[in-house]
Design a protein that fits this description.
- The radius of gyration is 26 Å and the shape is elongated.
- 76% of the residues lie in helices and 0% in strands.
- It has a domain at 54-171.
- The chain is mainly α.
Length: 178
């Protein structure tokens, strides 16, 4: 290195001697927040995915038992799965449009889940009209209780995921257009 500097006839410019390494290696607080929010959002996606899988199992059990499936429950599950795909894609690509779509569709899915609860389907109303044996009813009652817990867990995860997504959107840098 000294041979190159001597051959050029000068000294090395200031700032390239390595003393500014600690300054150059700092990461702006905004980028740290983005990384933290992306990790938090990923964890909330895992929780929401578990809730959606449980919703699919509940709908499958009702279908297997020969019962009529509530369309609101099926619609809520389908929209929730779509929201997860949009959210994960938006999180990976840092795409604000997909993250906004995720917030909208997951909020709709959560609202539909709450509407499903409100209609009385989770209180065992459809079980009282059954002509099946007692074992089938007890299984559906058990799943009914778990379905209520799933909806409440989904609401809690939604309450956490929306502010995290908003924080992520605020801290993300805008895409440059050339």
């Amino acid at each position: 290195m000294q041979q190159r500097n001597q051959s050029r006839g000068g000294t090395r410019p200031s700032g390239t001697d390595g003393f500014d390494y600690s300054y150059r290696m700092t990461v702006d607080q905004r980028y740290r927040k983005v990384a933290q929010r992306r990790a938090q959002l990923y964890r909330s996606f895992l929780c929401q995915a578990a809730c959606q899988v449980w919703g699919i199992l509940w709908v499958a059990l009702v279908i297997l038992k020969g019962r009529e499936v509530d369309r609101i429950a099926m619609l809520s599950t389908a929209i929730g799965i779509f929201a997860l795909f949009a959210g994960e894609t938006g999180r990976r690509w840092s795409n604000p449009k997909l993250l906004n779509l995720y917030m909208l569709t997951s909020s709709i899915a959560t609202t539909l889940s709450l509407k499903h609860c409100d209609l009385g389907h989770l209180s065992g109303q459809f079980i009282s009209n059954s002509n099946q044996d007692q074992d089938t009813d007890s299984l559906l009652v058990l799943f009914d209780g778990f379905e209520t817990c799933r909806v409440l867990a989904g609401v809690l995860v939604q309450i956490i995921a929306v502010p995290v997504t908003i924080s992520l959107l605020k801290n993300m840098s805008a895409k440059r257009t050339s």
